[in-house]
Design brief:
heterodimer, A: alpha/beta, five-stranded parallel sheet, about 20% strand, B: about 425 residues, eight-stranded parallel barrel, four-stranded antiparallel sheet, 20 strands, about 30% helix
Chain lengths: ~475, ~425
Amino acid sequence: MMIESLKYMPHPKEANAALAEHFTDLAPALNARKAAIESSRCLYCYDAPCTRICPSDIDVASFIRNIHDGNVNGAAVGILKQNILGGSCARVCPTEILCEDACVRNHDAEGQPVKIGLLQRYAIDNMSLDEHPFKRFPSTGRKIAVVGAGPAGLSCAHRLAMLGNDVVIFEAREKSGGLNEYGIAKYKLTDNFAQKEVDFLLAIGGIEIRHGQTLGGNVQLKDLHTQYDAVFLGLGLGASKQLGLTGEDAPGLLAAVDYIAALRQADDLSQLPLPARAIVIGAGNTAIDMAVQIQRLGAEEVTLVYRRGFEAMSATEHEQHIAKENQVRMRTWAQPQQVLLDEAGRVRGMRFEKTAMVDGRFGGTGETFEIAADAIFKAIGQSMDETGISDPLAKTLKRDGEKIHVDDRFRTVLPGIYAGGDCVAPGQDLTVQAVQHGKLAAHAIHEDLKSMTASITAAPKVEAA
Amino acid sequence: MADLSIEFCGIKSINPFWLASAPPTDKAYNVVRAFEAGWGGVVWKTLGEDPAAVNVSSRYSAHYGKNREVLGFNNIELITDRSLDINLREITQVKKDWPDRVIIVSLMLPCEEKLWADILPLVEATGADGIELNFGCPHGMPERGMGAAVGQVPEYVEMVTRWCKTHSKLPVIVKLTPNITDVRAPARAAKAGGADAVSLINTINSITHLDLDQMVAFPVVGGASTHGGYCGSAVKPIALNMVAEIARDPATKGLPISGIGGIGNWRDAAEFMALGSGCVQVCTAAMLHGFRIVEEMKDGLSRWMDEKGYTSVSQFVGKAVPNTTDWKYLDMNYQVIAQINQDDCIKCGRCYVACEDTSHQSIAQLIDAAGVRTYEVIKEECVGCNLCEITCPVQGCITMVPQETGKPYMNWTQDPRNPRAEKVAETV
């Protein structure tokens, strides 16, 4: 386990059952009555702003109207048609900056937006379908490799399968789901939802997932390229960025995502190593998830430190509010300067330098302070694990900065190789965006392959299904 | 605060709010509670001949709005299912205890003069202020030749009214059924029979909704259903029209009207009164909220009267009647055009899609570079139909603004575009 470096620490004081209580649903589900009231608030806007802003093109006004009309299955299928991971997106989407921010009921005179995220969750959680809502098209006879069983890869695989293709997903981890399984705060996706959603998605058939398959390790891109009709890379961002300080590998200092993954996978929360005082460095949702979760496990003092001000945080106001509600201390305008170690070489705190904007330029002020801590969690961003794309073929992929370059159809510069999700440049690094990329890439792959076949056989196009 | 007392066909009432003949007025217990709450009067639930009617279970159903608010209500109850004797004794006692409150006794009997001649002295002996003839009940009773079965035949209405005027000195209010093509016919008949007033509307034949699993309408009685009588907020527009029809009919002009049908607040009451109702009767709203609502109704009406400078109810009763006319006398040269207040607009696009799909394509959807929508009225295309104003969820955001056409009043009978213009004008 990646959190070996914390094993000398004590465990939470509470027993597993008591701890589990702290990780129940952050935003409890709507019951039927609440869903009826909330859906009645929707104005069924024309050209609805919520729909326009949804990265995965869910027809929000339509599904809410279906909920209100008692057609929950219709609502759910309407969501899943555009976003097969609609259930987890309903839980993890930053709706406060997406659909709910666009809701016309935000207007000064209106009060508050319709709770779209909770309504979406209501539809998915309460659907009662006799069979998988999507049928596979007649077989194309083609086989496509998908790398990564995260939101992008799963979405792509599902859509490809639906279009009549067979898919093999290569996944490095033991479980599927990617971020949803390993990287999101436990209280946002309770009841093993990520796994249940994967099971539902796979029920369409035609998708095989091979676990323990690491690109650049036991799987090489060039092999996939030759063995499959097409390849989709849904790599995600597996590597944590470094602070660049000495002592970064000291016991007590680790990436927040590693701890979150361990927490998510723990059968017994009381066996997790728990620092009494912790520092979390970063300002994104991962930083907040980390800080809040460790506080809930029983840490006495959790301080989140960010080098700029609140307004610059990538965690939304809603997320910041969650942190405050959970007694996370937030310290802005300070950057890490030195990891402080005790005699045994373990983390005992961190020295920070105060920062400021001077004449429009950001920088350190020279003034420092220290925060004592038993552990430091860095959540300053993720990047692609470069080992995955270091083989000779992968090296020829064009890049946009650190990310893989794709065109507007999610094609990389290598024919037959597509990519989407967090590993490509377009879009925000959001689950819902990854789902959309996977879906659109699947269509591109399917159509590209079809037109290739058409041009070879010069046969007239036959529309599937 | 303005004085709410009225005199309605000779009957004095401390306020114009009466409870209509219905379950809330079926017994002394309820009526006393109503009087304690402040109602000016009640029309005691319809008495009939013994043995008393027998009711089924269940009896009520409802037509709901988006938030499960009851828009319309429906019942299949019959007239009182308690004996005549009990009712008469209770009426006597309550009237004695509450001398300043109005008690009207509703009656329903077969069309035989002797039955009416026998019951009327008994009713009069209670001390009641008047009687109301139930010619409107649309369910159950018509099958027995009463209720709406009488109200639908003007000759019967006139005949029974005359019997009552013959055998009783009490004021006679004839309650009319809306289940008829032209409500003016029974109203005229009532007047011809000597009625002191009419009250309307009684309930409308209706089926509110169905249980699609059991394939049966509501209310369900052992797996079957029947049409009920519709009332509540949803029937108000129908009732208002019928009241106006009678108020402006030369044959019944001046005949006192007790307005009934979907009155749930002071504004509804004021509207009925402006169209000619001297008092109003309430039932469904009280059944849904209890008798206490009369408090807000009295307060609201009184404050509105103060604002408008009315010191008595009679000053505004019937005030909207002269402004209610036939279509052919409306001004063909009057023109309104929709105007959208952009500050209030929440950009929901409902006005746009309604006009674009179903009306005159007179709203433009403008999209700027940032993708922000703006909706603007295309004045040249707008016919002033009100659809956009109606679909707009923000009250007051879209207004219909009168245009200065510079043209004088011209109705259809005068309009050169009317191929029969002169003929119509001649017959007016």
